[in-house]
Amino acid sequence: MTPAAFRKIIHLDMDAFYASVEQRDAPELRGRPVAVGGARERGVVAAASYEARQYGVRSAMPSATALRKCPELVFVPPRFAVYKEVSRQIHAIFAEYTPLIEPLSLDEAYLDVTENLPGIESATQIAREIRAKILVETGLTASAGISYNKFLAKLASDYRKPNGQFVVRPGQGLAFVEGLAVGQFHGIGPVTAARMNQLGVFTGADLRAQPVELLTRHFGKAGRYYHAIAHAEDHRPVVPDRVRKSVGSENTFAQDLHELPELLAALPPLLADVWAYCERTGARGRTVTLKVKFADFQQITRSRSGVGPVPNAATLARFSHELVEGLLPLPKGVRLLGITLSNLEAGTEGAGQQLKLAL
Q: According to its UniProt record, which protein family does this protein belong to (predicted)?
């Protein structure tokens, strides 16, 4: 067995994080369907409480759709400063157990506890202690997945949500994966899952039966990853302080935009957000990407890369303007615009021994 097979990985995921913070801080919201986001016509749900999810309300859903599904839905505006502070508390608890913390967002992270600071042999016990401390210190619940690699730990954390944990032990990985629908696999989105279904691949067992050559022919380099996870294999280490590869900003408009002057007038706030990050961190990126969502929710992107990193805000604005002008003539109204700077360089900020595996 390789050293990776002896890792003890925990995936910690807060339960309905933004919405749970709002229910914690406003007792009158407890037990009610809550959505964090804008209730205006063009608003979008950023997060939904479990009570709202019972009606089919999900994050990234248009607010109007969410209200049709759940007329009693209560919208609250996001308070990102509060969420960041709670996230800081949670990560401080993680750091009591291991320095190997790979944040995925404010509310979830991978932890490698193979060798941990308290010297606890059982990763299951560590996960239980962390979840208990989070509840005491923040009043919020978290779910955990424990396994010998990141892929299985991520899957396992969804298995007992909310406020639970699940372990996939060595020797159980193949059986755990084979019965799951491919759409449940982290890294396989709805579009890819639909393509797999067209090939007759519906479950992990179906995916495992496919030759790697067939998967790479249909899915390119990702085919090897799909082949590996179908065999419950994932050798990626937990990487603390991951280098950020892109920075972006986007806005959904109250009314569709139809004319070039309107589109150009919408860019300055987005450009200001992106360049503020660059100034703060010293990061510079080579590729500018324009994201466009039309009134019918069709989404496209257009990109431009320079010979070297974008040197200043004026160049970022010029590239962005050229990308917007390249959309003309507009086929339909524009609902959303976004600008992302990627291939970041310099100044970007982050996000073993073979042991007995006592998960």
A: Belongs to the DNA polymerase type-Y family.
User: What residues contact residue 71 under an 8 Å CB cut-off, 6+ apart?
Assistant: none
Cα dihedral 282, 110, 85, 339 sign? positive
First vs last C-alpha separation in the chain: 17
Please name the residue ranges forming H helices in the chain: 17-25, 50-53, 63-69, 80-94, 123-138, 150-157, 173-178, 190-198, 204-208, 212-219, 222-230, 260-281, 313-325
Question: Would you say 150 and 157 are in contact if contact means Cβ atoms under 8 Å apart?
Answer: no
Q: Is 107 annotated as a binding residue?
A: yes
65-106 residue pLDDT tens: 999 999 999 999 989 889 989 999 999 999 999 999 999 888
CB atoms within 10 A of CB 55: 16
Spatial distance between the Cα atoms of 270 and 329, rounded to a whole number of angstroms: 22
Q: Which amino acid is at 125?
A: Q
Identified catalytic residue from 72, 108, 322, 349: 108
My answer on whether omega of the bond before 78 falls inside 30° of 0, hence cis, is no
Summarize pLDDT for 325-344 with one digit per residue, the tens.
Answer: 999 999 999 999 999 999 88
| Whether residues 8 and 61 fall in one domain | yes
The parent domain of residue 162 ranges over 1-170
Which secondary-structure segment (H or E) carries 114? Answer: none
Q: Are residues 71 and 34 in contact, defined by beta-carbon separation less than 8 angstroms? A: no
Q: Are residues 4 and 113 in the same domain?
A: yes
259 flagged as catalytic: no
Q: How far apart are CA 261 and CA 115, in angstroms?
A: 58
Ligand-binding site membership of 158 (annotated): no
Give 38's Cβ-side CA count (13 Å radius): 10
pTM, rounded to two decimals: 0.75
- Eight-class DSSP state of 30: T
Nearest to 86 by CA among 33, 148, 41, 23: 23
Kindly state whether residue 356 falls inside one of the protein's structural domains: no
Say if residue 163 is in the same domain as residue 177: no
